[in-house]
Amino acid sequence: MLIQSVHAHINANREQDINTLIELVKHPSISSNEIEVRNCAKFLKDIMIESGISTQIYETKGQPVVFGEVPSNLEGASTVLFYGHYDVQPPEPLDAWHSPPFEPAIRDGRLYGRGAGDNKGQLLTHILAVRSYLKMAGDLLVNVKFIFEGEEEIGSPSLLEFVENNKELLKADVVLTSDGPIHDSGTPLVAFGVRGVMNFEFNLETATTDNHSGNKGGVIPNAVWEMVDLLATMKDENDKVTIEGFYDDVLLPSPYELDLIDKLPYDPDSLAKVYGVEKIDLNKVQFYERLLFLPTLTINGIKGGHIGRGTKNIIPCRATAKMEVRLVLNQDPKDIFNKVKQHVAKINPKVIVTQEEEDMKPSRTSAELPISKAIVNAVREGFGMEPIVLPSMGGSLPDFVWTKGLGVPSIMIPYANADEANHAPNENMMLECFYKGIHSSAQIIFELGKLKEQK
Ligand SMILES: [Zn+2]
Predict the structure, then answer these.
(1) Containing domain of residue 259, as a range?
(2) Ligand 1 centre and the CA of 153: distance in Å?
(3) Same domain? 170 vs 241
(4) Which of 355, 373, 393 delimits the end of a domain?
(5) Which residue of 14, 39, 110, 437 could cross-link 125, Cys pair, CB 3.0 to 4.6 Å?
(6) pLDDT tens digits, residue range 367-415?
(7) Could you tell me where the beta strands, DSSP code E, fall in 178-277?
(8) How far is the CA of 89 from the centre of ligand 1 (A)?
(9) Stated pTM of the model
(10) DSSP state of 176
(11) CA of 360 to the centre of ligand 1 (A)
(12) Confidence (pLDDT) at 132
């Protein structure tokens, strides 16, 4: 079988494929709308079954998971698991849309509608790639599995538990996620990891009430000063976090990852403009090492005392700091939280440290694995362009669900245009990106099959 015939089939089915997406986007599957989410799950299941994928809906403690698979006839074939989500963000504000969010419309080479890019247009590319592949080849040289959840837009509260309870069902050699946009320049992206994130708060009370700064000045403590003093002990003048043991488990980039960094685009002047800062005083390696491979300690906000109009002349009795850590491999959120608490206890034991939300663990897959390289090759073919290969991303996603929960490599290959307006009015997916996504996913299936043959 020639892979060209699969690509030709995809090209011949453009109209049918975009119509399938239009029907899918018509479902107002806003995460909180249980009835519509379930209707959408059923509709998605129908599309998958029509495409030759045996599909079932699984209940979770929240919205259902749509699971599908196409086993290969090839003995010992490897398995790829495609992850996506069929729930969408609420469409408000409605009057900002040029066409109604759940009446998808094509204008200027884009399909407009809530969920067009995030994530229906992207998850559908995998299904349609399999459909064309099966039509032309009859068999796939890899086992293909799909897991589509209905709760991504509310933080995937049931996903980890579902994955941990269904390890055999989901067993795979690699997990692929197509969500989010490609690079601003229109260049495709392949990303191999994310930083984790952990939020916490420092609270300090130095008196039961604010006091007059003249009548009591110099004799009682000031909560804001004490908070500022504490914060000042957590970082040195080179931006290095001074909490004991903070960097102990940090895994620095491998020579291969440094090589990837070397190939990344870097223009500090234009970045400075985009970020609205005077300048970025870092070379390329420093920039990417800090952004992708090093943890951060960030003050998100400080509250305390009087900052309204006029003077108040008080000694504030309370201060709060909202704090955040971006974690990298192999930092453990619990361990880092304990180290933060120990540091605070040593400097100012009156400060109460609390963690509000659940943390998200960091995750990374080696870009050097044969399977990783095969995916990069496939995206190059599918988009007809050299992709940007990010050894990790600066942001945070629940990628650890795959790398830790399932214990397999996980790779992110976004297909949507950079201006997809996800979560915003006039969300859209460029038809060109949609089709290139289908070609890329077909090519992934092909390349992974080839990889097996070479073994
Ligand atoms: Zn989203």
Answers:
(1) 251-292
(2) 5
(3) no
(4) 355
(5) 437
(6) 999 999 999 999 999 999 999 999 999 998 889 999 999 999 999 999 9
(7) 189-191, 193-194, 196-205, 211-212
(8) 6
(9) 0.91
(10) E
(11) 17
(12) 97
